[in-house]
Amino acid sequence: MANGNAYTALEIGSSAIRLVVAEIVNGRLNVVAANSVPTQGYTKGMVTDADLLAKTIQKLVIQTQQFINKEIPSVIVSIPSTQATIIPVELSIAIENQANEITSDDIAQLFSSAANQLRSRHDEFVNVFPIDFQVDGVGGIADPKGLLGVQLGMQGMVVTTPKMLFIQLLTAVEKAGLQIIDTYPAFLSDAEHILDEDEPLKGVITINIGHEVTTITLFDNGYAQKIRTAKVGSSLIDNDIAYVYGVTKEIARKIKLDYGYGNIEQATKYKVCDLIEEDSMMKISEFDLAQIIEPRMEDMLLAIRAEIDKMALLDQYPVVFTGGTLEMLGAQKVISSVFLNAKVFQPIVLGARTNEYTTVLGTVELAHKRAKLTNRTLCSIQFNQAIRKKNQEEEPKDDKFWNRIVNYFFD
């Protein structure tokens, strides 16, 4: 490690729970560990068994700790995009220090004020994201620290999620023995990782095809403006394969990931999966699977397109796809048959070079940006043992997280 500090990001998905340990050095993302386990206790945007979910998270953490030979005491949590809400905010605070110099404490106070504006009984604050800072009415400022002024303003957006889901997820994480440093919405984490810097400014739609739902987000003028979810996901392909070959959904998913091909024209009959069931063997080729997968993918993409059509924006913006199922060969061909101006994101980060880890990698990148803006460490692992011990003594864990939600973000 160059600086001895690493971020740890956790994503709880319907098919898998993912954990990434990574650092950012000189603007470059370096993955130390990327690991996942099948999800238990959470499905279709609901926690069905908090204890089982906590044990599953704990299992993943233990596996990762053994790999890096370090304790993971805390994580940054990616919050699912299902039912997320984007709320525009505009506010300002007075600069009260004698030098009138804006500090990271002023920025944290501004963020805290934005969070405290929420009064919904049903939604919970996830995080606040600045779009533009103003100092004494002058805008266009990305980072106001060190500037002189009497008033600091911000245009930004607050992201919320259903209160019950938020509390259940964070409770499960803490039951797994982890402290929560911060939370970020999955749709913004995706965009942070898969989009070029100028794409949100020009306008773009991101689409993350998940296991059970697909998240669709419109970005324009540099920030997220609309978010929708379509109730389609890669589990539909698993279900079809399981039905045709009479296997479990878990086996069907493995067949899809190892041998699946999204396009009939390009699939070969020579790459074969030997399926052994009850002392009998069945040979399944890429071509056989493509005849199941391509029609189902087309159905999914048409359903996604119908959701975008409701926004009346499809012809105005290019589309960027991500999601683990898009690692399947031939996926781009099928997407191009439904969307004229679309591409599949191609991961390049060593150690996590699949679309499966898009969200957790983006969470690390968002956390790094926030740390630079607020001068607050969001690192989960201190590789200098003395420093880590000192921090643990200064920051004792409070088990009742819901009594200090705002302190997670603005301490």
Oligomer state equals single chain
Assign a percent range to the helix content. 25-40%
List low-confidence stretches: 385-410
Say what the CATH topology of the largest domain is.
Nucleotidyltransferase, domain 5
What is the general shape? globular
Strand coverage percent: 25-35%
The whole-angstrom Rg is 22 Å
What does the main sheet amount to? Answer: 6 strands, mixed
What can you tell me about this protein's structure?
The model is unreliable at 385-410 (pLDDT under 50). The protein is α+β, with helices and mostly antiparallel strands. Helix 4 packs across helix 10 (358-374). A hairpin with a 2-residue loop joins strand 4 and strand 5. It has twelve helices and 19 strands. Strands 1, 2, 3, 6, 11 and 19 form a six-stranded mixed β-sheet that branches. It has helices at residues 50-68, 104-116, 163-175, 186-194, 199-202, 235-245, 249-259, 286-311, 331-338, 358-374, 385-394, 405-410, and strands at 5-12, 16-25, 28-38, 42-43, 46-47, 74-79, 85-94, 123-135, 138-141, 151-162, 179-185, 204-209, 214-220, 223-230, 272-277, 280-285, 319-322, 342-344, 381-382.
Offer a few descriptive terms.
single chain, 411 residues, alpha+beta, Nucleotidyltransferase, domain 5, Dna Ligase, domain 1, 3 domains, 6-stranded mixed β-sheet, 5-stranded mixed β-sheet, 12 helices, disordered C terminus
